[in-house]
Amino acid sequence: MKIAILGGTGDIGEGLALRLAADTPHRVAVGSREAEKAENKAEEYTTELESRGLDATVAGGENASVAADARIVVLAVPPYHVGDTVEAVAGSLDDGDVLVSPATGMKRDDEGFHYHKPGAGSVTKIVADAAPEGVAVVGAFHNLAAARLANLDAELGVDTLVIGDDEDAKRTVADVAEGIEGLRALDAGGIANAPEIEGLTPLLINVASNNDGLHDLGVRFQ
């Protein structure tokens, strides 16, 4: 299937694009509000993959364009732009498509990062409220260290928690996630559980920043 990563020029977008292209058979495309920016980044990603002897490419284009024929659309955009992004690409989505939200709201002060819970309850819920009828929403990839994900030499060995109210869509995203070497997908229930999962991200950042050797911290449940 085709997977479109909107905001695929950013940190988490880069990591997901590289890992999905390197480890899975899916077609990967990255999007941006500016087509040229996405095309340039896609070329960089493809060059990186080719330098490793991988027969894989990443395409790039404007968000609505790359979403048009994608089965899965990942919203790798800042948390409070997710609703606007969904509205901007709604005309490119079809019944049965799946929107994936990895974003979490955070704010920072002198003590560190803190979860900034949106009025809807979670960023994933913002996406669910904006999604067109017939398009499922799944939360995943929230707690992954972007730099570790983008470094294809780094072993992952971490989990991603997957949430959603559509069981088929959730299984589809979990299968895609587990196609990435070293990543295990765990079912964490419905979208109502999103605040607990999104709230882990600032915790991980704080632990990583205060402890040597834990810069690219992840979570593994045992």
Give a quick rundown of the structure:
The chain is built from 9 helices and 10 strands. With 222 residues, the chain is of the alpha/beta class. Helix 1 crosses helix 2 and helix 4 packs parallel to helix 5.
SSE blueprint and pairings:
Elements: E1 2-6, H1 11-23, E2 27-32, H2 35-51, E3 58-62, H3 63-67, E4 72-75, H4 82-89, E5 98-101, E6 106-109, E7 112-115, H5 123-130, E8 136-139, H6 146-150, E9 158-164, H7 167-178, E10 183-187, H8 194-198, H9 200-210
Parallel strand pairs: 1-2, 1-4, 2-3, 4-5, 5-8, 9-10
Antiparallel strand pairs: 6-7, 8-9
Helix pairs in contact: 1-2, 4-5
Verbal overview:
With 222 residues, the protein is an alpha/beta fold. Helices cover 38% and strands 22% of the residues. It is built from nine helices and ten strands. The strands form two sheets. Strands 3-2-1-4-5-8-9-10 form an eight-stranded mixed sheet, with helices on both faces. A two-stranded antiparallel ribbon has the order 6-7. α4 (82-89) links the parallel β4 and β5. α1 packs across α2 and α4 (82-89) packs parallel to α5. The longest helix has 17 residues, at 35-51. The chain is globular and about 40 Å long. The two termini are 31 Å apart. The mean pLDDT is 96.
